[in-house]
Amino acid sequence: MNPITRPLSVAVFLSVLSILPLVSRAEGPVASDDFSGSALSEKWNVAKGAWTITDGKLKGVELASDKHAAVATYVAPHTNSKVKLSFQLAGSDGFHLSFNHEKGHLFRVIVTSKDATLTTDKDKKDPASKAVQLCKVEGAFEQGKTYTVTCETKGDSVTAEFDNGVKLSGSDPSLATKKTGYRLVVKGEGVLFDDFAVLTLE
After folding, report:
1. Rounded to an integer, what distance in angstroms lies between the CA atom of residue 108 and that of residue 117?
2. H or E element: which one contains 20?
3. What's the CA gap between 59 and 76, in Å, rounded?
4. What is the pTM assigned to this prediction?
5. Which of 114, 115, 85 has the alpha carbon at shortest distance from 98?
6. Chain segment 104-161, per-residue pLDDT in tens
7. Would you give the DSSP letter of residue 155?
8. Domains of the chain (ranges plus CATH)?
9. How far apart are CA 33 and CA 39, in angstroms?
10. CA distance 177 to 198
11. What's the pLDDT at 74?
12. What residues have CB less than 8 Å from 96, skipping those under 6 apart?
């Protein structure tokens, strides 16, 4: 072997070794659900409504007898996180991606056929409390068409980005607290959900 090329070969070999751990640590979701089973996993807590899995999609439908929107929560306590899911309006005008803290409602992303809104929630235990709209953006969400939303919470800030170009962002001191998980809230005839994934969790 040429003595000049040997050090180079060793250097290249060490360089390859140095990047292998990075390759092997390729990041994936912290938690996910593609609804490929016949029933919801134990991570989901259904409070109201009818929630069924058909053809690999989760469908939430409000029940008139409940006198309340359909609610299913993926239990995953966190303070900061990034969550992603796809959805399809299937009769309902929209849905909420809602976040609670240990003492009640905290904030939510509201999707309708015409727009998306980021708002804090009223504290039901405080008569003086009011919901605060942090951001509202017009944008069409058509019935029967699949969309994807990624929602990130970091400190007192929230950003929600949709694949149709709609983007919400806002901040409020109340948001910098521990959340209990991710709540899907559906009013009306139904919304389909798929490819639920928690990308980061702190």
Report:
1. 8
2. helix 5-24
3. 21
4. 0.85
5. 85
6. 999 999 999 999 999 999 987 778 889 999 999 999 999 999 999 999 999 999 999 9
7. T
8. 28-201 (2.60.120.560)
9. 11
10. 18
11. 98
12. 69, 108, 109, 110, 111, 183, 184, 185, 186
